[in-house]
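User: Please predict structures.

Assistant: First:
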Amino acid sequence: MKESTIRSLELFAVPPRWLFLKVTTEDGLAGWGEPIVEGKAATVRTAVEEMADALIGQDAGHIEDLWQTVYRGGFYRGGPVLTSALSGIEQALWDIKGRRLGVPIYDLLGGPVRDMMRVYAWIGGDAPAEAAASAKTRLEEGYTALKMNATGALEWIDTADQVAKAAARLASVREAVGAGVGIGIDFHGRVHKSMAKRLVKALEPFDPLFFEEPVLPENNEALAEIARHTSVPLATGERMYTRWDFKPLLSSGLIDIIQPDLSHAGGIWETRKIAAMAEAFDVAVAPHCPLGPIALAASLQLDFCTPNAFIQEQSLGIHYNQGSDLLDYLVDPAVFHYRDGHVPRLTGPGLGIEVDEAKVREMAAIGHRWRNPLWRHPDGSVAEW
């Protein structure tokens, strides 16, 4: 048996809401991945365990063939659970390959195109004063770009007051940070088409960096109508999987920025293929990543070899990270040292990080059962979160 054949796959559900995967070869070389659907960690764990039947005993270096085997070998394919499970496996295989060869993953995908990558930080607060204070704190931490939710829960058709509140909140943040700071606005798919048209018009005067997921991806055809009401770039893609999901969106010409998630969309190489498709349509890439350190490292490996990647989401200090944060699981947290709103190019082999396995095992004994909130409107009907 070859030393590079896959010997084992081991999974760890760790706080606050992540699932880590360790893949080990016969010669003891290990790689890490992050196969997760937020709120469905146990479901994805089962999917990875089922996929392991096709992986154990196979050469870990045959990444494309293993991806095709797992993806195409099942009659049912795609979607968040199966593709996220495959994404984490694929990340771990690239980590192994990079470590075996002693180079970062981006060196295996054409080499670096930049020395550092711009990142943005989340800000919160429902009131204008709270949002402005949160923005100022992030600027003091060195960030040059921020992202905030556009609104809370909205009715299918809501009031002018709700639109005015959203505008006032963004206005307060813009006043607090000045014109030189990018502010991404996340509609989070919680806004229906009719209200999205009103919101983009009301928010545009405050120069957002982009409008993210102005409608749910199943309603992407509405992007054409929304685009008629604003010149702000439109972004979407965090809930889309593989190049086949992105193909009609890119062909439509309706989008300015795609946001594939490397733990959902198919992994590092699949997302690099998606990014190349986007480049051909003159579309920018901003990978989605409100996740853990492995997903962030995978995203940065993509960013450093992808010309049309322009900014990276990261979860340090995000509101979801209660009890644990992404630096807690690294041997050397300095690899994600942000300077002037950028992270320097990772230079270590593979993913460029060292996972603290002892910490992972300690926290996996605690585990998690994270679920996203369930919102309801005042009349009792379910609202989009």
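Second:
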Amino acid sequence: MAKGKITYSTIRGDSPGYYALVCVLGALSLAGFGSAFMMFSQGHYITGMTNAVPWGLPIVIAIYLIGLSAGSLVLSALSSVFGKTEFKAFSRMASLLAALLMISALISIVLDWGKPERILVPFFSINPRSMFSLNGMLYSAYITICFVYLWAMFNEKEKLVKIIGFTAVFWAVLVHSGTGAIFGFVGARELFHSPLLPPSFIAAALSSGTALMIMVLYFTFRFTGRKLDEELLRRLGFYLAMFIIVVAYFVFIENITRSYWPSNYAMQKFLLLSGNKYSLIFWLGMVGCGLVFPFVILINPATGKSVRWILVASALVVTGVLAERYTIVIPGQVLPLEIFPGMNVTSDFQDGQINDYSISLAETLYGLGLTSLVFFLYVLALKFFELMPEEAVIASDIPDTSGTGKN
């Protein structure tokens, strides 16, 4: 990056467009909390969740946001840990976004409990053999690390920034490994159980986190009128293509391994070849949007250097990873548990039958509201904290003068 000092400043945030954006995001956030209150007061029967499928869209959104957070935090450490100084200008924005995404993810989990007042129970009833118990500690420490990292950057404590940067990267990997282990360690459900889920979650976090940051950086700099060197986005696009390859590798190995065992034939056929909605989400959403289409865009010389096409590829990845989270959480529950192998089980609770799950309006507003909350707080933070650089360029000099920024 530049040899000079990077100058950060607040945005003015006094334009009609800024106020309109804050109002829209605030209204969507309130709608999400209103939906959560309805679910709490009336019960989860107003959602698509059932006794057979107790984890619905709120859990999908939670692990999705955790992945975006982990990927964003790793990107914030590109300059301090990996020596990619050209990305130092984005470190404050990425670190804040990582903290906000994790906070929103935890809100999604807590409000989905049905008894959110029991939030402190996991901290007083520690079970080292429970990933839920361990992750409570990991998530709390993660948020603390994000804010300490931000504090060190604001105070320009370079040595401390580097130390906390290493810690942040290590903890982000640990956190998302733990999130993947919540599912991967469940041996009773074949579509959950896999030793590859923890590293697969990390790979998807890096791809989705990178894709999200590309879009956030582009639109933040554009709407605040500050200069952003397009070459920086192209370099992030290159990293995104590499992360897509890693995700594709894990997806292929995991599914080919499952398909190798005769006992998994019916399960894999249900997910991959049955033509149901889960198969469509897997092939069109996860494989198409998340892997094939964006990778082709990014490696094609005609489109891979175009910022607009990089934005399209990023949007596809963000959508595809959401589809991937859905195909991990939901199909694993709709398939019946084989409690008594080799025997038919029937009861009034439809044991042994394939169940169904459809996203309700309440869950849609819930997920949209919590996602909007992240960007509502992010947009407000830009106005009150010096998070944005005056400009982000690859050049030999960066102005040292301070300013108040535009918009």
